[in-house]
Structures are given as C-alpha cells and as structure tokens.
C-alpha cells in the first residue's frame, strides 16, 4: 500500500482529485466507460472540488454510485446525502 501524506486537507484533496481524474480518463479510454463511487462528508470537499474542475473527462461515460442515505429522508433535506452529491458534484 502506498501512503501519501500532504501538508493540509486542501493539498490532499487536490492530489486525490487529480489521481481519481486520471484513473477515470484511463478507464474511459480503455473500456469506453467508468464506474465511480463517491463518499460524502466534509473530508471529501476538496477532493470533489478538484475532481469536478478536471478537464477532459467525458462525464456522459461515467456511472456514479453512492451507497449512503438515511432511511425515509427526503432528497431536499439538509442532511440528505443525495442533496450533498447533487450540490457538490452533479451540478
């Protein structure tokens, strides 16, 4: 296992976002599509910011999976993970 240590959360998020973007582009090039799973929470803010700012990713070829949600919580609720993904990634 390779461990990367960065000086702060922003630097870590940038590094993780760039790495993820490269893997997504590579997968699309090799297989024509890419499947990704996104995590939620404040620890992911910088990674998602970097990933959504990456160029040359054909997002129409990416399938997004999200595994968490509260039972019976409306999608518009402030604590909804669907809301989180929609606002921080999809939009």
What's the arrangement of secondary structure elements?
Blueprint: H1 9-31, E1 34-37, H2 45-53, E2 62-65, H3 81-90
Parallel strand pairs: 1-2
Helix pairs in contact: 1-2
Key phrases:
91 residues, two-stranded parallel sheet, 2 strands
What general form does the structure show?
globular
Strand runs, count: 2
Rg, nearest Å: 14 Å
Question: Mean pLDDT across all residues, rounded?
Answer: 91
Distance between the termini: 34 Å
SS element count, helices = 3
Largest sheet: 2 strands, parallel
Question: What oligomeric assembly is this protein in?
Answer: single chain
**Would you identify the regions where 5 or more consecutive residues have pLDDT less than 50?**
none
Please give the order of strands in the largest beta sheet. Answer: 1-2
Report helical residue fraction: 40-55%
Output the structural class.
mainly alpha
- How do the SSEs run, as a string of H and E? HEHEH
Strand content: 5-15%
Describe the protein.
The structure is a single chain. With 91 residues, the protein is mostly helical. Helix content is 46%, strand content 9%. The chain is built from three helices and two strands, in the order αβαβα.
Concise structural overview:
This protein is mainly alpha-helical and 91 residues long. It has helices at residues 9-31, 45-53, 81-90; strands spanning 34-37, 62-65.
């Amino acid at each position: 296992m390779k461990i990367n240590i960065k000086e702060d959360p922003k630097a870590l998020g940038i590094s993780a976002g760039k790495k993820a973007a490269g893997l997504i582009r590579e997968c699309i090039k090799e297989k024509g599509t890419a499947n990704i799973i996104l995590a939620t929470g404040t620890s992911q803010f910088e990674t998602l910011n970097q990933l959504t700012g990456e160029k040359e990713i054909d997002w129409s070829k990416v399938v997004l999976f999200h595994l968490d949600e509260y039972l019976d919580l409306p999608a518009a609720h402030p604590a909804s993970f669907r809301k989180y993904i929609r606002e921080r990634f999809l939009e």
